[in-house]
Structure formats: structure tokens, C-alpha cells
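Render TonB-dependent receptor in 3D.
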Amino acid sequence: MSFSCSLLARLTIGAALPAIAIASTPAFAQATAQRSFDIPAQSLESALLLYMRQSGVQVGYEPADVAGRSSTGISGALTTGEALSRLLGGTGLTYRSTGGTSVRLQAIPRTGGNAVQLGPVRVQGAGNGPAGPIETATGPVPGYRAALTATATRTDSAIRDVPQSIQIVPRTVIEDQAAVRLTDVIQNVSSVQLNGTAGNRAETYNIRGFVASRYAINGFPLTNAAERPEAFLDLANVERVEVLKGPASVMVGLTDPGGVINIVTRAPTEQFSLDGSFQAGSFDFYRSELSVSGPLNASGTLTARVTGALQTDGGFRDEARDSERAFGAAALRWEPDTLTRVDLTADYLDSKQPFDRGLYADENGNHPRDAGNFLGEKWSTNASRKLVLGLAAQRQVVPWLMLRFTGRYTDATSFDSNGVDLQGLEADNRTLRRRVTTRTEAPEDLTMRFEGLIDAFTGGIEHRIMMGVEHNRGEFFFNSARANIGSIDIYNPVYGATPIPVTRQNARYDRETRNWGYYLQDQISLGEQWKALLGLRYDTAKSHQDDIFNDEIIRTSDDALTWRAGLVYQPTNTISVYASYTRSFIPQTGQLIDGTPLAPEKGEQFEGGVKLDIIPDALSLTAAVFQTTKQNVATDDPTDSDFSILTGEQRVRGVEFDLTGEILPGWNIIANAAYLDTEITRDNVFAIGNRLTGVPELSGRLWTSYSVRSGTLKGLSVGGGIRVATKRQIDLDNSFTIEGYETFDASIRYAIDEHWEASVNAQNLTDRFYIEGVQSESNLYAGTPRRVMGTVRARF
């Protein structure tokens, strides 16, 4: 892409700032909101660049207007408008709003005598008041309500400016709810349910009715060579969990059409901080966490964070082995000057847990109603080890251009030590045939991105442009061997299927994938009230599978052009009305029984909605209606589960509501509700009109907490909530349904002082039995029975 000399002269000083960017671009807030400024006296152009980075405001100007001018500098806590006015003092320049997230410099017009007339001013601020912390798109969120996101556009953007539904669960909510699983966190988002755990290896989810086989971490999807995450996610290093609804291929490449879950990790801080916790609870659960962050040198150009967690869990499954987990993460940040940032990250996970396929249902829908019912054996184990290394570097080359490189390397291994698979019921509908499988899965992945971010004006229209190239190379080694073992009664299990038999190899292959993506995105501000988002991406995906067991080579090659377009109308600062269209593309790794590779899945979505600040800068509501369609859907071949069939086309229509924020001082809420109408719309095998597997028609969650801020009860907080889901279909044949459920949770917390607090959380207060994840009749995952958790937390 090229620009004329006249356009280059009008490029803005601001650069679109990404998830790893040096400064954020907050949403417009009240003019009284303040930031901390420290800009020494220097040339005006250099001072404006520092102002942009410290304020989040984008400033456009004509180069000739600032050439040769100087700034006296500013220091202290100021609103963004006050700071810019002082910075421009004596320069003969003022500024005016250009809509969106920017202002533009202009010469001060003279009115009579020596008086000046200032143009209209609209500023961006922290939104949390002088005493509150300043939010960034990847940092801590003050309270429950996030105003910024980097997931939706990979540039720090106000959520209200994004023409797509996105929900964010910050660390504050994770801690208040004493969440220990990603599933506990995801419950706070509409239209997202647990799909399954692949034998208790890692979690997968349904988003808007479609299975999301992978999630992303800091904008990078997990390896494309595997069909699910490599291991369970540990929450110790999680800053926030963001869910972008609908196809997101333009942003994150090869993804499922329901949406993408993006995990944002904790970054180093400029000031020293330490936080840790110890938890103990039901089922012999024990967990400890510690995170230390701060500067490593006197100048503060080098900062770091180290995080660790240890966990053991006896679990609620009778006769299953205990789970063990050790997690560690480190992050190093180097900022040699205000124009450059380099981030190095590393994390390591080592875990062992029981291999567990869940409960089994007969052809009439009958199944055990005891969450502790375990159909494996004590010696059935899954173990995972995972190492992730990351590098992110960026440079503000000139005031209007930022270049950045990001890369991630993952090396993981998963071992199934005699995992017990469930094979089918005898005629009595209670005797279950089983087999034991030893598996080794070893995914390795390298992803790299190089991007340029440009801010430009064309006439009165503001552009925030991102263009880049992405390369992913993944390898996946798989080996398995099987043998039959003794049957078990699903209602009255008797264990002891020993000795473990000698297994016979049934599969061994090595798969390699190579993917290239080229993308262009333009966030356009069309004056004060209108914003547009356009994105285009071209992907090529190739795979080479050496099937060693069957002595054959399988090659696939797919490509696709995906795009998205959206429009936002903002009649006031508190209302955004939006509409969008998005597409997705993802290759499939399976094959038909005749050996033919599966065609890639494709998806599209139409969405419209409103984002409303019910209480400005405090309480926000997102309401959305949508239709998502998915083509080339693969399911297990009923004649041989090692192969797949393509079921044609599936469609989901839905309505969602998500409410987040503070109702009154100290009273927080995060709530959601969804209605999903799912159906098969075209198929050769299943009946047209059947509902999709495991998706409730109605679902929702409410969680609210109240903290006493004064008086004799100061420091006391109480919270509670309810989670609801209606019945779900067991399969695409709609053979029978799994009943819905409602569960209740509660918490009480007391802040002893500014450093120490203690809390007790209770999950599923009524101890109700329910099925949380519905994958198939042989993979029903029971929800946790009543669990009580005590936590002691320290912050310094």
C-alpha cells in the first residue's frame, strides 16, 4: 500500500497501539478523569509523541505547523484536555475533536483584539477518576467492567467502538469467585458452555452453539496441528479472559465460527508488587499461588514478573487418582526509550490427572446420577508437560508508523498411561465394555507475525490501519496402542481390572502443518458518531501427514479469503448501535473412511446489537442478535469412530445479553442470558431441523457482590449467584436429551487490612447432580458437587 506525499504530510502522530503496545487508547470518558504526565521541555513534535503515549489520545497535525516549535513540558496528574492545553501553551496552536479517538491541531483563530477562540474539545481519560487506576487494554481492570480490548482488533480499542460482541472477565472476578478452572471463568459469558475435556486432558467449549476446539493466548491460537488444547489452563498468570463472538479469522487466523476465547496474561509492572494466595477446600483440594513483579534496575527500563502455582486435588470421582499440577511463568520487559519495547515470556506446566471419559448413557437416555461414579481404574492416568516461549518487539519508527514483531514457540507432550475408553453397553443396558489405550501426543508449534500500524487522515476521516503477515508451522506426533479390559457395571462399578494387558499398536503418525496469512484492517472514524471496521485476510494452509502405521502419506492444501465489515453508530457517548458481517475458515485434520481428506469448515455470521452504558463509566450492557452458519461440519463416522463424515450445514440464531459493572459504590455485577435456536439445515445423514449437540436453548448466569466501604463492617464483602441451563441434545440424531439444571453459589470475604484478606466460597450450594458438558452418550461430564473453598490472600 502506498500513500501520496500530500497524504503523508497529514499522517497522525498517534499509532494504533496493540495488545503489547507501550500506551493504550482508552474509551472517551468524563473530562474530570486524570492521568499522570511527565513530559520534559523539548521540541513540540517529540513532546506530542510522549503525550500520545501517556494519554492514549491520538493527535493529528500538519508537519509545518509544529516544525521549529518547542514545548515547556508538563508534569503531574491532569485531565487529558488540561495536559494538551498546557503542552501547546505559547505555541499558537489549539486542537479540535475529529471524532473517534483523536484530536487535530490547528492554528488559534483570532477573534477581536488579542482574544483567542478555542474549538470544541473532546478528551480521553482513564474513566476511573483521579483516585482510580488507569485501565489499559491488556492490564488489570478496576472492578468488574472492562472498557478496552486488544482481542477484537489487535489494536487497543474501546469495546463500544467494536461492531461485534465481546465480553471480558477480569482477574477481579476470577478472584472474587475463587475460580480454579477456565470453565469457572467462562460461565460469566453468554452463549458459552463446556463441551468436554477429551478424557480429562483439556477443556473445549461451545461458543454460540459451535465447538471451539482451541483458544488463544495473547492473540495466538493454540497449535493448528492438534484438535484441542495441549493441557488444562492454569489461572495463576491470567489477567483477563476475553471472548470475541462469531467468526474471527481476520484477527486470529484459522478459527471456528462460534468465536474465539483469548487469554491475556499478566505483564510486569513499573512498581514493585507481590500477591499470593493459599486455598484449601472440599475433596482434598489445595492450591498456592505467588506472583512478584517490579523493576530490575534503577532507571526502570527493565521490569519483570515471576509467577508460580502448585495444586493438588483429590477430586469428586470415586476411585480416581489425585490430580497434581505445577506451573511457573516469567515475563521480562525492556523499554530502553519511549519508542521501543521488547517482551520476553516463558511458562511451563507439568500436570498429572486421572484419565476420565465421564459417565455413560444408554439408548433411552438413562445414566448414573452420581457425580462420583467413575468408570475407569485407579491406574488410568493422563500426564502433560508444556513449555511456551514468547517474544514481542515493537518500535515507533516515525510518529505515524509503528512496526512490531511477535512470535511464540510451544513444545508440549501428553501421555495417556492406560487410559480407559468406554466402548458400549451390553443388552442389559448396564454392563459397559471397556478398552485400555496408551497414547503419546507431542505437538510442537512456532508462530510469527510481522505488522505495521499506521494512523492517517484522508480529509476529515481518521484511519487506523494494520497490515501484516503471519506464518505458523506445527508438528504433531501421535502414537497409540490398545487392548480390551474387563467390563464394568455403570450403576454399581467394581474395580480391579488387573493385570493391565499388553496393548497392540493401532495408530502412529507424524503430521506437519504450514500456514501463511496476509491481512489488512482499517478502523475508520467517520466524524463524531460513525465508525467503520473493514478487514481482509488471505490464508493458505498445507499439511503433510506421514501415517507410519498404515504406511501412507496424506497431503492437504486449502486456501481461503475471509473478511469482515462492521458499522457503529453512536448518537451519544453512552450508546453504540452496531451491525457486522464476518467469515471464518479452518482446515480439518480428519478423513473420510475412504481416505479422502476432509474439506475445510467455513462459517459466516450476521450480527447486530447495542452497547449501552447504563451508568456512564460504571455499568454496561451488550445486547446482540445474530445468525451464524457453518458448512462442512465433521462428526464421527457411525461405522468407524476413527474416521469422520461431513454433515453438511448447521445454523444458529440467537439473542444474548451481558451486563457488567458497578450498580452502586461497592455493589458489582456480572450477568448474562442467551437464547440459541440451533438446527441442522442441510445434511445427508441427520434429519433437517435437528438441534445441535450439547447446546441449551436457554442459559445464563448471575453473579453479584457487595463490599462494605465504611462503618464497623468496613472490609466485609458478600456475594452470590445462580447458573441456569435448559436441556441439551445428546447427539445430532437427537436420540434423547440431557436435563437442564440450576446451581447456586455464594461467597463471604473480609479484608483484614490493605494487605490481607480471607474468604470462603461455596459452589453448588444445594449439592445438585447435573451434567455440565455434553459431548456424546459416552462422554457426559458431571458438574462439581457442593464444594467449599477457603482462601487467604496477600497483596503488597
